[in-house]
Amino acid sequence: MSQRFIAHLDMDAFYASVELLRYPELRGRPVVIGGRRRSVQDAAAGTVFPTLRDYTGRGVITTATYEARAFGVNSGMGLMKAAKLAPDALLLPADFDEYRRYSRMFKDAVRAVAPHIEDRGIDEIYIDLTNLVMLETAGKALDPWVRARDIAVNIQQMVHETTGLSCSIGVTPNKLLSKIASEFDKPAGITILRDSDTVTRVWPLAVRKINGIGPKANARLETLGIHTVGDLAKTDPSLLIEQFGKSYGAWMYEAAHGRDERAVTTYSEPKSISRETTFENDLHPVADRDQLTQIFTDLCIKLAGDLQRKGYAGKTIGLKLRFDNFKTITRDHTIDAPTQDAAMIRRAAGACLKRVPLDRRIRLLGVRVGSLSRPGDISTVRAPALF
């Protein structure tokens, strides 16, 4: 395969950084994002933020500023546990509508410089810079890796000018190495890794730094005495295949050597679009009926907005419930024609709800629309307005 220049762009502490644009007086302070979204009444009361020491509940950290991370708190950690590590850290609620807006902004800024991108989530993308680099260095005595860095700098500047936010970028010959490299010099870093840098820069890393090696695989590798990427690279591939299976074991060996031929995929049709929320406290289907009804309706309205903005409609409406015993139930209902109408989605999801025994408290509620199609197939039939 000819030389490729693949970038991975990762926004720096994305959710927290968006909040700091809203509350610049909190810059330099340990701030944790998580828990419930503040009500209109709470927001109107002013910008007096609680500290983690005052938190009670089972919420988890969505993200944290680098000042908060210095205390050992990180994404996915329970807020109660984080309170023991950083009791004076300020707690802000997550505002995903705002994060999605900034996500669209930074991706549009990148496309203006390098249009060949693969969307990997709300705060990260892959970018294929190969054509840009080759076009600008063809017939010239220029180091293409130097030009790749120049393009990455330009992208980073465009993102900052457009959003006020910083990002970190790794540029390497492939997606696997670029994902690793984008973490090297955070925040606001740019890291260039060539094939020859794998041994010196990547092999000393913990094996879990390879995207695709999760906690279970990492634990088993440790029992085999494999702790670093270099250890993994020096392991007999037959042992890895014996322990992890032919496909995964062989992939581990290739990944440890920094080999990855996956292309940057610019677009793929989603199979479904969903919205869900986990409650701070379990809600009772009878005692908390009014609250649940409002949350249910709001999810359907937001989901309809997502469909309309992305240009999809769907025929299969799904419901997801998780109860206080962590049992999860899903139900689907297929309607006659694709829709992106909130009331139609609410009605179909309500039909799913009638097929679920509501005899326990509920901790999570979600709504999904599948069997997606494009606008030309959208039903012109509208359900009555939501009450």
Topology:
Layout: E1 6-11, H1 14-22, E2 31-34, H2 40-44, E3 61-64, H3 66-69, H4 79-85, E4 90-92, H5 96-111, E5 117-119, E6 124-128, H6 130-137, H7 144-163, E7 167-172, H8 175-181, E8 190-192, H9 198-202, H10 215-223, H11 229-233, H12 237-244, H13 246-256, E9 272-283, H14 289-310, E10 313-323, E11 328-339, H15 342-353, E12 362-373
Parallel strand pairs: 2-4, 7-8
Antiparallel strand pairs: 1-6, 1-7, 2-3, 5-6, 9-12, 10-11, 10-12
Taken from the alpha-carbon principal axes, the silhouette is: globular
Helix content: 25-40%
What gap, in angstroms, lies between the N and C termini?
59 Å
Low-confidence stretches: 38-45, 377-387
Radius of gyration: 24 Å
CATH class of the largest domain: Alpha Beta
Describe this structure in words.
It is built from 15 helices and 12 strands. By secondary structure, the protein is α+β, with helices and mostly antiparallel strands. It has 4 domains: 6-13 and 98-199, Alpha-Beta Plaits (2-Layer Sandwich); 15-94, MutS, DNA mismatch repair protein, domain I; 203-256, 5' to 3' exonuclease, C-terminal subdomain (DNA polymerase, domain 1), CATH 1.10.150; 272-377, 2-Layer Sandwich (Dna Ligase, domain 1). The strands form 3 sheets. Strands 5-6-1-7-8 form a 5-stranded mixed sheet. α14 crosses α15 (342-353). The longest helix has 22 residues, at 289-310. Residues 38-45 and 377-387 have low confidence and may be disordered.
